[in-house]
Amino acid sequence: MTPCPRVRASRKLSGVSYSLRGPLAAQAERMRAAGEDVLALNLGDPAAYGLPPAREVVQAVREHLDHSCGYSAAAGLPEARDAVARHYRDKGLDTVRSCDVYLGNGVSELAPLSLHALLDPLDQVLIPAPDYPMWTASVVMAGGRPVHYPCDEASDWCPDPADIARRVTDRTRAIVVINPNNPTGAVWPRGILDGIADIARRRGLVLLADEIYADFLYDGTSHTPLATCAPDVPCLTFGGLSKRSRIPGYRMGWLALTGCRGPASDYVAALETLASLRLCPNVPAQRAVETALRVDDTRALTAPGGALRLRRDHLWHLLADVPGVRAVKPHGAFYVFPRVMAGHYRPSDDESLAADLLHEERLFVVPGSGLGPVRPGHLRMVTLPPPHILTEAVARLARFLDRRSTTRPSTPNQDRPERLCRRPCEERRPPP
User: Fold this and answer.
1) What is the pTM of this model?
2) Exposure pattern of 365-404 as b/e (b: 16+ CB <10 Å)?
3) How far, rounded to the nearest angstrom, does the alpha carbon of residue 381 sit from its chain's CA centroid?
4) How many degrees, rounded to 5, is the angle at CA 61 between CA 60 and CA 66?
5) Closest Cα partner for 178 from 241, 226, 137?
6) Before 180, cis peptide (omega within 30)?
7) Bridge-partner residues for 159, per DSSP?
8) Which residue, 106, 117, 240, 431, is the most exposed by fewest CB within 10 angstroms?
9) Which 8-state DSSP code applies to residue 342?
């Protein structure tokens, strides 16, 4: 029998990875299946950590199942799109109408769709570093080239608009903003966003605003929708129910268009074509949109005494007491991005560090190198688990690092991340 020729994978995939659910995650699952006690702090899934959705949201789906068997319109049910439009008008985006809203099976469906409609081969998209790897992968799969702009750990993980402006070329088509940020938990202030909007305005770029964590804010921090800084610039604002309503399994997200009428009409037509090709979003999940946007219980979770606030505080304080570990305090989302300091330990590359943590201590966290070009030694940890699980996780991390210690500090590290900042990001100014 003649052997079958080898089937090769697409060369495009050479630039695609997803460390949150990559080989390390598969190994963690195998270890769990074998009965090992693995603590996984890799996925931002509230439902997995004892934070169920509001009963009204689930009930809205149940009540409409019998009427959700057929297709909806390609962009979504009119009543769901209208609810999202009202949601953004309440946030100050007065021009958003239901026809400006496209529903999808999560932002992870809509982000690639928006890029396929925009990019020609080798077009460039500016993406923050660190980033949520879906954005980098989606640019590559759409034939584009991701260009990362750094976020400064010493300035609360904020970027410098002047640096972003220097990275714009004649091939640049869009700027991605992830705010509140995954993986750092940073919330970028108005001045930074105004600077980014001005770059897009002057260079004719599209803004892609990933604001899926806009409702998760701590310590009195406010969130500014990027589109409010750029009403005259084509801006796609991405949101959804996965985090806000704690129903990631329902796969319900959306994008809202602002500043797109007129000059971006061809782009909007391409979006409509691609939305039609996938037939329609998940219809049962669309039935939850109106109720979910009316029932908002995230503030109770993030306020002082709320479950998410307590868990964030607990993990951050635990990490601050591990010698040689630094972590900027997150003010949004539900992640922390600690760094193992050089000179205290002998960490190898981030992937090896995370792999060794899994094998030696049964602790699964995401290596920073899987989240874009960042300084070595970073790990992403979710703040969602209950305090006793977070305590055990940090105990395993501390035990692991103690075995690799090269120096022994005389006193435990009590430095708070704010002391590391050269200047707070609120003081950063956009480029002239």
Assistant:
1) 0.89
2) bbbbbbbbebeebbbbbbbbbeeebbeebbebbbebbeee
3) 13
4) 115
5) 226
6) yes
7) 151
8) 431
9) B
pLDDT tens digit sequence for 113-129: 999 999 999 999 999 99
Structure tokens of 6?
């080898």
The two structure tokens encoding residue 232 = 């005259």
The tokens of 366 are what?
């995401």
State whether residue 74 is helix, strand or coil: coil
Average pLDDT over residues 418-432: 39
Q: How far is CA 152 from CA 156, 379, 424, in A?
A: 7, 16, 10
User: 3-state DSSP call for residue 130?
Assistant: coil
Which residues pair with residue 342 across a beta bridge? Answer: 345
Q: In the numeric block, which tokens belong to residue 161?
A: 């608009």
The Cα 327–Cα 330 span in angstroms is: 9
Cα(254)–Cα(174) distance, rounded to whole angstroms? 19
The rounded distance, in Å, linking the Cα atoms of 108 and 74 is 17
Cα separation, 233 vs 207, whole angstroms: 7
Cα–Cα dist 85/153, whole Å: 35
Q: Cα(first)–Cα(last) distance of the chain, in Å? A: 70
* Averaged confidence pLDDT in the chain: 89
List helix spans (H) across 142-235. 161-166, 190-203, 226-229
* Cis, bond preceding 225 (omega within 30 deg of 0): no
CA–CA dist 92, 431 (Å, integer): 25
Is the predicted pLDDT of residue 320 greater than 80, yes or no?
A: yes
Question: Using the 8-state DSSP alphabet, how is residue 370 labeled?
Answer: B
Query: Buried b vs exposed e over 82-99: b needs ≥16 C-beta within 10 Å?
Result: bbbbbbbeebebebbebe
Map tokens 């390609």 to a residue.
Answer: 74
What dihedral do alpha carbons 238, 244, 250, 255 form, nearest 10°? -10
pLDDT of residue 372: 86
